[in-house]
Each structure stands twice: as C-alpha cells, then as structure tokens.
Amino acid sequence: MSLRESLVLLMICTIWGLHFVVMRTAIGDFGIPPIFYAATRMSLVALIMMPFLSWHPGQMGRVLIGGLGFGALNYAFMFPAMGMTTASAAAVAVELYMPFSVLLGVIILGERIKGWSWLGISLAFVGAVIIGLAGPGEAAGPLFAVGIVMMACAALSEACGAIAVKLTRNIKPAQLVAWFAVVGTIVLWPLTVLIETDQTAVFAPDIRWKFAAAVLYSVLLVSIVAHGSYYWLLSRLPIQVVTPSGLLTTVIGVAGGLLILKEPLSIGLTVGIAITLTGVAIVIWRGNRRATKMAKMVTPMP
C-alpha cells in the first residue's frame, strides 16, 4: 500500500468513525427525529446519484434486497439506536456486521468455516452482550441495552444486504449506491410519517443549521467522499488489505465518543468492547486467510 493509499484509507476511517459522533450529537443532543434524519440523507444521496441509476434485468430482486439491507432497514434501526446508546458503544456494536455476514454465508451460500472463525463469532456476540449489560448510565439513558440490540439489528440488515450484493454480477458500485438510496427513500419516508412527530421542528432557527450540518456530513463526506474513496481502494488493492479498515473505523468512533463527547467508559464496557473487537479481528483474519488461499488455488488465464 502506497503512502497515498494509506492516507486515503485513514481519511475514510476517520470520516466513518466520527460519523457516530455526528449522529449521536444530532439525535441524542439536538433531538432531531432519527428516521427523518435518515430519510433526508437518503433522499439527497438519491438525487446526487440519480445519473447512475440503471436497470439490470434478472438481477433487480437482489439489488432491491441489497437496498433494503444497506439503504433502509439498517438506518431504520441504527439512527433511532443512536438516541439510546453512546457513540463509542454503537461503533463497536455495528461491527457485528462481520460475524453476521459469515453466518449468513454459511446458511445461505453453503460456505464452510472452521474453529477459529467460530471462536471469533462467539467472542463478538459475547462481547456485545456484555456491552449491553454494562451501560454507562446517564450518558445514554435507561434504554441503552435496547439501543445495542437495535445496532445489532442494523448490523444484521447490512449483512443480509451484503449477501444479496454478493449474488449480483457486473453491477458498478455507483449504480448500487444509487439504488440503495432510492430504496431507502421509499422505505424511510413512510416510516417517519407513521412513527415520528414534529419533524418540522428541525427547521426552527436555533436548530436548522445543526440539522443541515449533520445531514451534509452524512451525505457529502460519508456517502460520497468516503464510500467513493473506499470503492477506489477496492479497485486498486486486494480486498484482504482493505477489509480490516472496519476495526480502525471502530477505534476512531470509540475515541471520538470518549474524547469529543466525554462519554464514560466503565470496566464492564471496556471488557465488552475488547472482547467484541477481538472476535471481529479473528473473523476478519480467518476470512482473509481463506481468500488468500483460494486466490493461490486459482490457475491464471493465459
């Protein structure tokens, strides 16, 4: 990995990690309706990415399922959870995406995993349970454990979306992002109308600039800059080099919660975070070893 690629990867992880701080501040402190926030974000992304929309005969079912996982249900769980949990705990809980993806690969795709992977999956879920039971009290409120469960549901939604995307063929990342944004827009707006109230309060003079800043961060930096740069890295580097960036993102998210938001870190929460990240690291390590081994077994085309 060159110096430029390393700096781009660091930029991506920093943007993604600090997004937990932005979401927690916007939803938990400013009181912005979470699903309304998510729906606004996806609508703007859909408008920006509209030129990339393209119909793919025979594959649209998988694309739409991917959109439900990556553009709708994940945010329907994640954004409300940010008002119940802390940025640092949420950044760790969403890493359950990796163990969920491996389990779904076994169930749906018939993939096989061995002892180390099962150990990593077990540790990740045990750590998440410890995090949920070791809530930081007033820093998150009485629904902290519920927020952790909802973050796990968001991770599961993304894992389902990943399996659907894995089954697609010859669809460019920008086209997938465009469809995910469209699906998110279609699903999230009815949800905010049915579940939330007083959405127009975000346009009050004392909060509208805060809402605009949070949405612009989510749309421009997270969805456009970070995701676009991530796909650029994937096109240049082996996937096993890029995949571990999720752990760096989590570390930055935890650090942002502790240093910027001054979130407390109890002994139980520390233990839960350490166990979860250890489990996720093992899952990534074993997955990368399998990918490297499979790549060596493939005979190059002349």
Can you give me a brief rundown of this structure?
With 302 residues, this protein is an all-alpha fold. The chain contains twelve helices and no strands.
Which blocks of ≥5 consecutive residues have pLDDT under 50? Answer: 294-302
What is the element string, with H for helices and E for strands? HHHHHHHHHHHH
Indicate the proportion of strand residues.
Answer: under 5%
Overall SS class: mainly alpha
Nearest-integer average pLDDT = 86
Question: Can you tell me the number of structural domains?
Answer: 1
The helix content is over 70%
Q: Over the alpha carbons, how many angstroms does the gyration radius reach?
A: 19 Å
Q: How many helical stretches?
A: 12
Give the biggest sheet.
Answer: none
Instruction: Report the span from N to C terminus.
Output: 27 Å
Query: Using DSSP, what is the number of strands?
Result: 0
What's the shape?
A: globular
GO cellular component, one term: membrane
Protein name: EamA domain-containing protein
InterPro entries: AA-Vitamin_Transporters, EamA_dom, EmrE-like
Family: Belongs to the EamA transporter family.
